[in-house]
UniProtKB/TrEMBL annotation:
Organism name: Neobacillus notoginsengisoli
Protein name: C2H2-type domain-containing protein
């Protein structure tokens, strides 16, 4: 997959990486190889990863959608915390 850096404008191949933070938080990100700008895609902790596993077998779309919204909100908050 290719991306264009918002900072330097160069096109590059996106290579996803993971970084482990305290409290078992895992950040998934990529960097522009030209200017080294960091793009955090998402972050998870043990609770979020458990919720992601729990949602896999659920067939009810309404319940699944509600759980996914909760997961997304928790990931958004966690991402904000690690980007400080």
């Amino acid at each position: 997959m290719q991306g264009t850096c918002d900072h330097c404008g160069k096109v590059f191949n996106v290579k996803m990486k993971t970084k482990h933070h305290p409290k078992k938080v895992i950040e998934t990100y990529f960097k522009c190889p030209h200017c080294k700008h960091n793009y955090t895609c998402f972050a998870t902790n043990p609770d979020i990863r458990k919720m992601q596993e729990d949602i896999k077998p659920i067939k009810n779309n309404i319940f699944r959608s509600a759980m996914q919204r909760e997961i997304n909100e928790k990931m958004k908050i966690l991402k904000g915390e690690i980007m400080k």
